[in-house]
Amino acid sequence: MPRPTVEITHVQEFSAAHRLVSAHLSEQANRELYGPCFTDHGHNYEVEVTVRGTVDPKTGMVMDLNRLSKLVAERLIARVDHRHLNHDVPFLAGTITTAENVAVAFWDELEPALRKFPGCKLYRIRLHESRANKVEYYGPAKAASRSSSPSSSRSSARTRGAKA
Ligand code: NI
């Protein structure tokens, strides 16, 4: 019988400041596009890291969640928690610190560390910027294999008038 494939998800929170500003746009255009997000502000973020793999019959696990927790804490959270994402985080230097770009950068920071775990792979990074807004990234390989659908998605449960 083939081994079952299971997705396991680990969640951590962090708080960080940022502002949205594009070097491609004038100050006026930035203000119009990003509104209040053009100035410094902060979020209580939540990042969900999903690993997909087969259940090892020896351990009953896809991957040891304590080890995943440690990796997420060291590779991601320790480097962004209580920082300004635009100024204090080398792996975000030069990027527009939207949730989309932060999710992609998180993938790039975490995925290499997961390669040494046999039988499983990073499957998804989901980043909640607020209770209402979240983005998901499934990595560059999926983007190539699913030409008809984008590799990242953005969803908003925001209702008119609610705060971002
Ligand atoms: Ni923001």
Structure description:
There is one protein chain. This protein is an alpha+beta fold and 164 residues long. It has a single domain (5-156), classed as Tetrahydropterin Synthase, Chain A. It has helices at residues 27-34, 65-80, 99-114, 140-145, and strands at 5-18, 41-54, 83-84, 120-128, 133-137, 152-156. The chain has a six-stranded mixed β-sheet with strand order 3-1-2-4-5-6. α2 (65-80) crosses α3 (99-114). The longest helix is centred in the middle third of the chain and has 16 residues, at 65-80. The radius of gyration is 17 Å and the shape is elongated. Residues 158-164 have low confidence and may be disordered. The structure holds nickel (II) ion. Nickel (II) ion binds next to β2.
How would you concisely characterize the structure shown here?
The chain is built from four helices and six strands. It has helices spanning 27-34, 65-80, 99-114, 140-145; strands at residues 5-18, 41-54, 83-84, 120-128, 133-137, 152-156.
Q: What's the number of structural domains?
A: 1
- Using only C-alpha atoms, the radius of gyration works out to 17 Å
The distinct ligands, each listed once, are: nickel (II) ion
The SS-based structural class is alpha+beta
At the fold tier of CATH, the topology name is Tetrahydropterin Synthase, Chain A
Report the portion of residues in β strands: 25-35%
**DSSP E strands, number:** 6
Oligomer: single chain
Biggest β-sheet, characterized? 6 strands, mixed
Helix and strand sequence: EHEHEHEEHE
CATH class, anyone?
Alpha Beta
Side by side, the strands of the main sheet go 3-1-2-4-5-6
Helical content, roughly?
25-40%
CATH superfamily, called what? 6-pyruvoyl tetrahydropterin synthase/QueD
Helical region count? 4
